[in-house]
Design brief:
alpha+beta; about 270 residues; 6-stranded antiparallel sheet
Length: about 270
């Protein structure tokens, strides 16, 4: 299975800074069918300037716990920007692509670019669960709380989730795949069938997922150092030409690849 974790999706990955901590933890094996990972962000910027953190979201639903702001968050189709100030803690549960469909009665596309109360899908009081998670004394203790909660609400396994993740993993592993038609043929589906499947289970189109992972890969490479061969990078990511890659990157990130690379290097130095 291709690695979808690491720092992929995090723009300008933060270097060592004791005022900011970001961690990802795997789920227990019995929950791995539904959960990709747990993520935890802590910051203490008291007396410091606020910090802007940006991410390119994955094609996944997240259940997020934050004081007075907990909820179920659908796939975000745009770059996510958050200003961090003072001190704070956020705990997130990142579901595998398509897996949240098993926990809700509605198409996952209903959640795209939006959020709703935990109560709506799980029937529990958001504030009570939020307090229990955020008051836990360690990462391990918080994970214990959410895993008890998840086990109490575990649905039947849906084999369609396996199919969805096979498609997503194929997209990640095969950069040469750029067209939904190619993907549909690979998995023995019609294009329309694949599109309907992704709308109901993932919340976004397969074309969107292809483009999102290509741009995550580009941002990660650009954050790691200078890229001398822009045309080669575009081709390696499955783009037919450099101009198309630059336009896609700019439309999501708000900067050209070269501008992003310069800014990423300046933040690391």
């Amino acid at each position: 299975m291709p690695n979808r974790a690491g720092t992929k999706g995090i723009l300008y990955p933060i270097s060592r800074d004791e005022r900011f901590a970001f961690a990802r933890h795997p789920p227990s094996s019995d929950l791995a069918f539904w959960i990709d990972w747990y993520w935890i962000v802590r910051w203490d910027l008291a007396g410091q300037e606020p910090r802007t953190q940006e991410t390119i979201p994955h094609p996944s639903v997240n259940l997020v716990f934050e004081k007075d702001a907990s909820g179920v968050f659908g796939v975000a189709t745009r770059k996510f920007t958050r200003v961090l100030a003072d001190a704070g803690l956020v705990f997130g549960i990142k579901f595998r692509p398509g897996a949240f469909h098993s926990f809700t009665a509605s198409p996952v596309s209903d959640l795209t670019d939006s959020s709703r109360a935990i109560l709506e899908d799980f029937g529990v009081d958001d504030r009570v669960l939020e307090t229990e998670v955020l008051n836990a004394e360690s990462d391990t203790a918080m994970i214990d709380v959410v895993e008890r909660f998840l086990r109490a609400h575990t649905p039947e396994k849906d084999n369609t989730v396996v199919t969805v993740n096979s498609v997503v993993d194929y997209i990640v592993a095969h950069r040469e795949v750029t067209r939904v038609e190619e993907l549909a043929r690979q998995f023995g589906m019609s294009t329309r069938m694949l599109q309907r499947l992704f709308s109901r289970y993932v919340g976004v189109s397969p074309k969107w997922v292809i483009r999102r992972y290509r741009l995550q890969e580009a941002a990660e490479q650009l954050s790691g150092g200078a890229v001398a061969d822009w045309s080669g990078l575009a081709l390696n990511l499955g783009y037919f030409d450099q101009a198309h890659f630059i336009n896609d990157f700019r439309s999501l990130i708000g900067l050209s690849p070269a501008e992003y690379a310069r800014r990423a290097r300046s933040k690391i130095q």
